[in-house]
Amino acid sequence: MAINHPDGHQPDSRLPCGRDLGTLHEHLTAGTLDAHEQACPGCRQAADAFAPALQAVVSLATQRPEPPAGFVESVMARIRADIRRTRYLALPAGSPSTLTITEHAASAIMSGAADTIPGVTSRGCRFPAPRDPTHVAISISLHYGLHAATAADHVRTTLRKAARTHLGIRLRQIDVSIDDVHTHGPDATRARSSTPTAPSPRMPGWC
């Protein structure tokens, strides 16, 4: 075991009895203290000084590290994002030219459009069918108090407009999934005043 001094000077690593500290540490770690090291007061004192660090090492070695909450989901989301970066969607273009966009970029456009709706936050967007830019699936978080069906219709209308404006396509299917409900945020007041709510709790479709 090497002991480095802050100023670069290497102090004598031998105990008063002549035993090297590195050798003592190796024997202590391996559980092979010899007769001298077990009987010598100086070696025993040095061994006692090493004990807390060795106990910590043993404790850490027996512990199974647990990933933080959401770690696996975060990794998988990044993997899926990387896949979307390499998967292309065909967009309208005058013959004989071609125009393509990555699914990742197209999803960002759709999510950005949804985020402009008061009380709605996009949680992710994808194109379920490979090479089909006309089918979109989007997950959203909805502000508490907004009518789910009305908000979903607003999302579909906004996405259709964004697709025509930015991608030049007409969406044939838009799947909306409400994955969460939030009760705070910068859009809270604007959401309550801008997005229609259900006419009555007794009406079908009330959420």
Short précis:
The protein is an alpha+beta fold. Helices cover 45% and strands 16% of the residues.
Instruction: Tell me the major beta sheet.
Output: 3 strands, mixed
Question: What is the number of strand segments?
Answer: 5
CATH architecture label name of the largest domain = 2-Layer Sandwich
Beta-strand residue fraction:
15-25%
Please characterize this protein's 3D structure.
By secondary structure, the chain is of the alpha+beta class. Helices cover 45% and strands 16% of the residues. It has 2 domains: 21-60, no CATH class; 73-194, 2-Layer Sandwich (Alpha-Beta Plaits). The strands form 2 sheets. Strands 3-4-5 form a 3-stranded mixed beta sheet. Residues 5-10 and 188-207 have low confidence and may be disordered.
List its salient traits.
2 domains; Alpha-Beta Plaits; elongated; disordered C terminus; 207 residues; two-stranded antiparallel sheet; alpha+beta
Show the helix and strand layout:
Elements: H1 21-30, H2 35-39, H3 41-62, H4 71-86, E1 88-91, E2 99-102, H5 103-115, E3 120-126, E4 135-143, H6 148-167, E5 173-182, H7 188-194
Parallel strand pairs: 4-5
Antiparallel strand pairs: 1-2, 3-4
Helix pairs in contact: 1-3, 5-6
